[in-house]
Amino acid sequence: xxxxxxxxxxxxxxxxxxxxxxxxxxxxxxxxxxxxxxxxxxxxxxxxxxxxxxxxxxxxxxxxxxxxxxxxxxxxxxxxxxxxxxxxxxxxxxxxxxxxxxxxxxxxxxxxxxxxxxxxxxxxxxxxxxxxxxxxxxxxxxxxxxxxxxxxxxxxxxxxxxxxxxxxxxxxxxxxxxxxxxxxxxxxxxxxxxxxxxxxxxxxxxxxxxxxxxxxxxxxxxxxxxxxxxxxxxxxxxxxxxxxxxxxxxxxxxxxxxxxxxxxxxxxxxxxxxxxxxxxxxxxxxxxxxxxxxxxxxxxxxxxxxxxxxxxxxxxxxxxxxxxxxxxxxxxxxxxxxxxxxxxxxxxxxxxxxxxxxxxxxxxxxxxxxxxxxxxxxxxxxxxxxxxxxxxxxxxxxxxx
Length: 401
What we know:
Blueprint: E1 7-11, H1 20-29, E2 37-42, E3 54-57, H2 70-102, E4 107-111, H3 115-128, E5 132-135, H4 140-146, H5 151-167, E6 170-173, H6 176-186, E7 190-192, E8 214-219, H7 225-237, E9 241-242, E10 245-252, E11 266-269, H8 275-283, E12 287-291, H9 299-304, H10 309-315, E13 320-323, H11 330-337, E14 340-343, H12 348-358, H13 361-378, H14 381-392
Parallel strand pairs: 1-2, 1-4, 2-3, 4-5, 5-6, 6-7, 8-10, 8-12, 10-11, 12-13, 13-14
Antiparallel strand pairs: 9-10
């Protein structure tokens, strides 16, 4: 390990505050001396300005193209991906390499969050002969499938992912299962780096008030409508009350559908909020709801990915209801650390039982102590800084606090 070298961050999501990816990169970049960092943004986002020196390159269109339905449409999409998209992505390599050379870059930090950057990674390593440090948030095949790419194109992007990871010197990942998978597959050091909040989660010292309403908090994107339906049906069976206390569902985000409300209910739709406002709103909740889809198409995502909203939940100082299949990464994490309760079934009765357990004052107080410990040991800025230094292979003392 050595001092902080000059690093080029090549990314689809630039450091900023418009979405979770931008926020996490913003916070990671805050550890680096500004003079040591250059940014190459490969996207079609409006220019939001930057605190760092860099360039912006137009990203190829990654949306699926199906001029005809079914397999014929998939065939045409694959032709577009393998010819038009590939040519556009490959043209990025020289521009990025030239900029890296002109700036005296010593390492390339590459976010594998777009198909174009997954494609160019191995070529950048070849062209520049610089170490590639890869950041993986989500499995590559999940990203492509989520964009509607046909099965042949998904396999093509997975080959690109394998080549890029094989040429990477190190990888930053979001879960222990990713560490196990990628270190085994590619023989490279992998480090878990999770989003962090300040050291002392707010609200942890507040006593459990069994006279107040029971408020269930959810923040962010909902990937599986059936899980919200299951939650609503469980609350319907409880008639949205428990022990004389009304139950309120607090939703913080942009788009939700409520099709299973069968009895009078209290739902707070608060829209999108910034990270700090979201955390403050969650501190007023009895517990937070963390769903991970049970659908087979999400299986690999569930095994490897790690919901970024968990860091916000823990920073709010409240227990978490993890509603996920038993193979999902957050399940053993929660069971081992005891910061919440786990329901590994889509049974309404099972989810209702988990809710009842979480609302027991003695259980909740015990879990809140584990919430604090988990936050400090896994989601604090101190831990984020230490893990980021490992990923960069630099001395931690060279990073900003």
